[in-house]
Structure formats: structure tokens, C-alpha cells
Amino acid sequence: MTQAMEVKTLRIDGVDVSARADQTILEAARENNIAIPTLCHLDGLSDVGACRLCLVEVAGTNRLFPSCVTRVEEGMQITTSTDRLQKYRRMTLELLFAERNHVCSVCVSNGACELQALGQSQGLTHIEFPYRFPQLPVDASHERFTLDHNRCILCTRCVRVCGEIEGAHTWDVMGRGEKARVITDLDQPWGTSESCTSCGKCVEVCPTGALFDKSDVGTRARKHPEFLTYLNEMRGGQS
């Protein structure tokens, strides 16, 4: 029996579930309507465990595991919501808000932002960490789209969709720590990129207002990243 066909039985939040051996905890949980918050994860893209919001507890160890990149194992006993996990998730969200310049009231994605929605769902009303207030640029050189580094959370969705779905590999990440930021080509203005196909997939998958269509300014345009699953299915059917 191949790994994809092998079935594992485990328990998530006291519920007995089964999953294929090649599935992650996150996939198994969502198949059984058990919610785990995420930001960097998106169906149709590879997982990188960047945001750490999907951390879960596994019985028998004190470690916290990112559910999006942790494979299921036989007999696992997983807890997705505890005071400890809530504390970590809230702290992670606070750090994301404090690291850059997220001003929801003037953001093009106000009301349609995954970071904003998660903050609301976690009861985030204020930030205890000091704001960094970095001086970050806005790249409006592209004729259709804009990149606002102030709103970027480095989820790398744009990097992955551009490489894995579009195949253009226009986006990458430069720098480390608080100096890290997404770039096009070798840190060239987006509008001068020779590899960009202007397909807009990177804009559609961005969870915040970091990447947006200029025509959406002043509107409450909603993004539709669910199309990636369809693209992957079509690509798989042609292979």
C-alpha cells in the first residue's frame, strides 16, 4: 500500500478522525470541520509554515507543531485550541501588526483583509508590543498593480503562486529578520520586470493590502484565491 493510500487514525480535539498518511494535521482537521487559523497557508500552494498561527499541541511532547507542515501519525492526540495556543496566536498577530505600518482605516483591503479578520476573531483590541514604524516604500511602477511594503506580512503567497502556478518566478524574498521584504526580479521596480506576466495571481492571493489592483482603490474589492485549487486540478489532469 502506498503512503497516499495508507490510512492513519488519530484524535483531534477529542474527535476520532482518519486521514491519509500523506496528509497534514491541518488538512485532516479541515476535512472534519475543525477550524485552525492560518495566514500563509492557501489551498493549491505548497506549505512553508511561515506565519506560525496554525500551531497545535500534540500529546506526549511539550513542543508546538505547525499543523500545515506536520504529517499525521497513527494514534496522534492533537489539541487545536488551548489557553497556551491562544496566547501564542495573539502574540503572533500583535507582532505582525507592530512590525510594519498597518492602518486599517485607510487600507484598500479594509473589510476584506485576512490579517484584520484574524485579529477580530482572536479578540485583538490593542497591541502590547511597541510599534516599529519602519520607513518602507510603495512600488507603484506597474501599470496595473501596486506593492505596499507597509502592509506585507511576508507570508510568501505571492512568491509561491508566481513560481508554482504561473511559472514566472518573478517574486522572491530579500534580506533577513525585520529587514526582509518581497522583491521582483533582482530587486527591480515591479513595472520594469521582464519576467512578470501581469497575470494578477500574486494580487489575488495576498491576504492583506500589500498587493492590490490600482482600479480597486476606493472600492471594497474582494479577492478570490480559491481559484488556485481549480488550476492545480487542471494541471494535474494534464500531467
Characterization of the model:
The protein is an alpha+beta fold and 239 residues long. It has 2 domains: 7-81, Ubiquitin-like (UB roll), CATH 3.10.20; 87-225, Alpha-Beta Plaits (2-Layer Sandwich), CATH 3.30.70. It is 25% helix and 16% strand. The protein has helices at 25-31, 83-99, 114-121, 157-166, 201-205, 227-238; strands spanning 7-12, 15-20, 55-58, 64-66, 77-79, 138-139, 145-148, 171-174, 181-184, 211-213. The radius of gyration is 19 Å and the shape is globular. The two termini are 23 Å apart. The mean pLDDT is 92.
Q: Which descriptors apply to this entry?
A:
five-stranded mixed sheet, 239 residues, 6 helices, 16% strand, Ubiquitin-like (UB roll), alpha+beta, 25% helix, 2 domains, Alpha-Beta Plaits, three-stranded antiparallel sheet, globular
> How much strand content do the residues show?
15-25%
How many strand units? Answer: 10
CATH class of the largest domain: Alpha Beta
CATH topology of the largest domain: Alpha-Beta Plaits
Number of domains: 2
- Helix-strand makeup class: alpha+beta
Overall average pLDDT:
92
Oligomer: single chain
Tell me roughly what share of residues is in helical segments: 10-25%
Strand order of the largest sheet: 2-1-5-3-4
* Rg (CA only): 19 Å
Q: Alpha-carbon distance between the termini?
A: 23 Å
Instruction: Tell me, briefly, the overall form.
Output: globular
Second-tier CATH architecture of the largest domain? 2-Layer Sandwich
